[in-house]
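BUG-870 | component: ligand-complex export | severity: low

The export step for magnesium ion jobs runs without errors, but we want the raw record kept on the ticket for reference. Input record follows.
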Amino acid sequence: MNMLDVRSLYVTYLSEEERVEAVRGIDFSAEEGKVTGIVGESGSGKSTAMLAVMGLLDHKAAVEAEKVSLFGNTVRAGDNAAIIFQDPLKCLNPTVKIGRQIAETVRNRKKCTWREAKKRSEELLDSVGIRHPRLRMKQYPFELSGGMRQRVVIAIALACEPNLIVADEPTTALDAAMQVRVIRLLKKIVKETNTALLLVSHNMGVIAAACDYVYVMKDGKMIENGCADDIFYNPQTEYTKKLLSDATAEQLLVKEKVFAAQENPLFTVRHLKKRFQNEEGVNDVSFDICEGEVFALAGESGSGKTTLAKILTGLEQPDSGEVFCRGERVDRKNRKRNKNMHGKVRMIFQDPYSSLNPCMTINEMLTETLRAKEKQIKFDQKERKKDRQRQIEQMLTRVGLSSLDGKRYPRELSGGQRQKAAIARALLLEPELLICDEAVSSLDAATRTQILDLLLRVVKEKKIACLFISHDMALIRRISHRTGVLYKGTLAECAKTRDLCRDPWHPYTKALLDSVMPPDPLKARKQKVPAVHEGKSEGGCPYFGSCGYKMEMCKDAAPEMYDFEGRAVSCHLYSKQQRAGRNPNYKMTSQI
Amino acid sequence: MRKENRISSKKRKGYRDEKAALIILLIWIFLAVCVPLFGPYSPTEQNAEIRNQPMSLIHFFGTDEFGRDNFTRVWYGAGISLVIGVGSSLINGMIGILYGAVAGYRGKRIDMILMRAADVIAAIPSILYVILITLVMGPGIKSMIFGICIAGWIDMARVVRGEMIRLKETDFAAAAKIDGISGIRILFRHLLPNALGMIVVNFLFLIPQAIFTEAFLSFLGVGLSAPTASLGTLIQEGRDRMILYPCELLAPLITLCVLLVVFHILAMAMERRGGQTD
Ligand SMILES: Nc1ncnc2c1ncn2[C@@H]1O[C@H](COP(=O)(O)OP(=O)(O)OP(=O)(O)O)[C@@H](O)[C@H]1O
Ligand code: SF4
Ligand SMILES: [Mg+2]
């Protein structure tokens, strides 16, 4: 039986200048106990349709529909329906403990005492797979990791005991392993509580893993629908075929770089170490980055990627270890040299909403950057001042912003435009190494491609190097030349991206690659839920707790880096003892 | 939904209060400047012929026992209160911002030392400092402002320090640091403007505090000395003759209360608005 039934829904955004028809007459329905997916590229009106169904579009838009009913009733957000957004922090109040937030929702739904509400909240947290719920209830949102926050949001959604849950890109901000876990969790909840789930995503892998029935949406219309297997194995329309081929094809944005033998690395990092009070930040990491190269750093949340980037930029001081730039040691104690270093490394941050000063226009910000540059290199002041505006405008055009955008404040720009402004700032000082810390993960697919193109073009033209940090293996495969995989602050493997993705050597790399969801329902259903990494091993291999290949020796001795013609791997499977019996001319291959 | 409605109606009411408060404040300032300057009477000149007159159209609040026009005296007093309130708050604000900014931005040892020093100063009630200073320097507007400023900046310093600690961890501060912009410039050009909302709110709270301190001390007779009469002095004088001439007490009292309330409403409105933009 159809629970949610929507017939010819039209939504038109009204602004002063124009009318945008975002949704143009769509019909769809959702069944109880089933997951219904809606796919489509960015801007196809998916989110608008969902908001319209929930009645959350206020005066900005005109909504017309022949019928929107949930079991014959109207849909009321927070009552018989709940919604989950992409960014869990948007749904959580940062200043209120999560226990209270859930309990309040419970109490809104039915009359009960605080104690009963607390108890129910604990059950809910437990049901979404958060361990030690009683402890967690006393924490604030910022103390939880991304995946946990999203679970809390799901728990809050469940607290309303809704008939319908709408999830709008619920996993886009999470790393691959966490994506799989959250999707599994949603599926399980839907089965157990017999609610209907509408899942919106642009990621075909997520849709394949989760959905029973799929709608394909384009330009505000539903162009195809069918059960998941039909859509994936027997697509009818060209558009669906294209979506599928885009998702499966290894669309490489960079060409394989041919490394000249003995090429001088631009940046060399040796034995970097940084410890925070109680946990490892970065532990003995070494690698090289060459000119014109995109070096990707992969790893799950909390593995120390950002810490490493901060050390390279000089924002954090390492406990030990060295960084060389063109063979010259960057001495952090020596202030003058340190200044030099500042000119060479630039960073683009993950969140374009926090990396631009809200009190400055883009022009003001860029002027500040130029001023700093002029201070370092003595210029004729008068001459320069005139030059500044010209330079800024050139840079803005370069990154695809208009000079009008330059006069705007960050809050008046879209996410993509902000990220472009951040890139403009980074490039203005002609860096040698550009660090992109998850620089595109908060952007939608179309903007993301635009920004990536821009980045790659710049790296190539200016002959600089790029350290690209991301947890998205699919993205890394497309744009990087070489990849380093970080695990709990240690470098597990480091190799050419193509080799590494095709044929992983380290067990953790394999696990990381396996957690990418394939756009194929059968494979996706069989996919294992990645193990939760647990247990610190003192002195042994950091991956010991979850490794499927562990041996006796792994427990006591941490493996060192073993290097085989450009492939470096830190695992005992490749150690001398393991190689002992072999022919000395044996060419090392993957041991897993 | 219901909750939202409640908030928005509250918001609307807030805007109305705010406007009314601002208008009253402007009227008060206008009167405090114009009445003593352009009015027909002097606040200090005595005139034996018109002693203890009741309220009339010539003397709105009557005259006192020396024949001085109460209306002029009240507004002259309000002017003094405003000068002390705004003047001391400006100085306090300046010191507090500098002190807090340096402590918060530098952090670690310097922060520790600076804030402990501030704690020590704040341990003694502000009023004692003022009394002490007026005893040493003699009563007067200057010593009053000076006394208020000894410990008055500490609240501001704490607020600014908190904001700096929050702001210096932001990505845009990190980006500025990577760009090689000097610490002082980051502090004043990049971070402080972001704390402006909080600073203004705090500043608006400092003013009524200072006005109240002055009025309180003058009422006790420690503050300003005759012939400069602030609202506190007037209330003190009016108290003795409360039964016979209630107007002499009520006029300065109401003027003072309105002034304090108006500043409070404005500060609270700013605070609310700051919360919104965040
Ligand atoms: N300032 C700090 N103080 C204490 N611990 C920290 C600090 N910064 C990072 N850490 C810890 O160091 C580890 C690595 O953090 P880091 O931010 O580098 O991870 P990441 O790989 O960038 O994760 P994500 O993908 O979520 O961005 C984490 O365990 C984190 O809790
Ligand atoms: S060293 Fe041992 S435990 Fe560590 S990854 Fe290799 S096989 Fe697994
Ligand atoms: Mg990070």
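Assignee comment: Attached the raw record above. Residues A 507, 541, 543-544, 547, 549-551, 554, 559, 571-573 surround iron/sulfur cluster (ligand 2) (CB under 6 Å).
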